[in-house]
Amino acid sequence: MNAAVQNMNIPNVNHYIHAYKIAPWRIQRQWIGNILLAVVALAMVATLYLIITSRAAIAGREIQDLTYSITVSQQVSGDLQTLLASLTSASAMERRARELGFRPMEPGEMEYLIVPGYSAPQSYILASAPHLQLSALTIPPVYNQSLLDWMDEKFSSYRGSQ
Question: How many structural domains compose the chain?
């Protein structure tokens, strides 16, 4: 049966070889098709690479623009803080007050107003109270002992018990 299959395949193979010999343009068309397929595949890969690269470049440029706008905003904020500091300085406030008709107060012009039920706010002392501080005198002697002192005490008590 194997021989029959081979005999059947031989005419088909011969038929294809004969067909290529008669029309060599078929082989050329296959080569051209394969080359065009490779060119299209390379063009697709190059297009994909260009798309990704352009998006990365656009994102980088946007980051640069945002960084620049942050820097400009920080400079404007610094300028405004400087202007506010100069406008609220003691000398500028005194000059504006004099321009508005105010003058320094004399000691005899002072008047105190007593408000019934008002109590002055208590000032808070942020330092710790002295009774909460621990000193070397308030710490038990057991905690003041070094390791060498403790070992010496144990060895001397051991020698004394023998």
Answer: 1
